[in-house]
Amino acid sequence: MSNQELMVLGQADEAGACCPGLLTAPLDEGQAVELAKVFKALGDPVRLRLLSLIASRAGGEVCVCDLTPAFDLSQPTISHHLKLLRQAGLIDCERRGTWVYYWLVPEMTDRLASILTRPAGEPLPDRGAAAGAAS
Q1: Least buried of 31, 71, 111, 124, by fewest C-beta within 10 Å?
Q2: How many CB atoms lie within 10 A of CB 112?
Q3: In 31-98, where do the E strands start and end?
Q4: What pLDDT was estimated at residue 5?
Q5: CB 80: neighbour CB atoms within 10 A?
Q6: 73: Cβ contacts below 8 Å, ≥ 6 apart
Q7: Cα angle vertex 61, ends 56, 62, to 5°?
Q8: pLDDT tens profile 66-115
Q9: From the CB of residue 89, how many other CB atoms can be counted at a distance below 10 Å?
Q10: Beta bridge partners of 103
Q11: Minimum mean pLDDT among 17-21, 102-106, 131-135: which range?
Q12: How many other C-beta atoms are found inside a 10 Å radius of the C-beta of residue 54?
């Protein structure tokens, strides 16, 4: 994933300000397209489990040889899912000899959390009043 794509998802710009969260301002078309790629990567149960296995691993990284046995899937299928998580910027990896080691990219999960988080102290909308006004 390029730096430009990461900036769309909430990386601070040169002024130090962060992109607005989903709940504070509407996304433009480009932001929605890039954010959808990340959510699509998370939308598969196997990829979500892989991300969880990687993120929760003591020491912060895990060998692909330890991931494959956790699934009733072939090694090429697991590799494909890992590739999609990498392309979404959620994980990264390094080859060490025969094996590849994976780790979470916490900056990306932090960006996703900030995009979905309601600003602190902001009250929830009163949906009851809006529903009453519509009738």
Answers
A1: 124
A2: 19
A3: 62-63, 91-96
A4: 41
A5: 13
A6: 46
A7: 90
A8: 999 999 999 999 999 999 999 999 999 999 999 999 999 999 999 898 88
A9: 22
A10: 92
A11: 17-21
A12: 24
- Three-class SS state of 92: strand
Distant-in-sequence, close-in-space partners of 106: CB < 8 Å, separation ≥ 6: none
Widest CA span of the chain, in angstroms? 67
Residue type present at position 65: C
Angle between helices 29-42 and 106-116 (to 10 degrees): 120
Give the pLDDT of residue 4: 38
pLDDT at residue 131 tops 80: no
- Tokens 């509407």 identify what position? 26
Tokens at residue 69, please? 């046995």
Residue pair 52/126 in contact (Cβ under 8 Å)? The answer is: no
CA 21 to each of CA 27, 40, 66, 70, 110: distance values in angstroms, whole numbers, following the listed order:
8, 18, 36, 35, 12
Dig out the tokens for 129 from the structure.
Answer: 């009043």
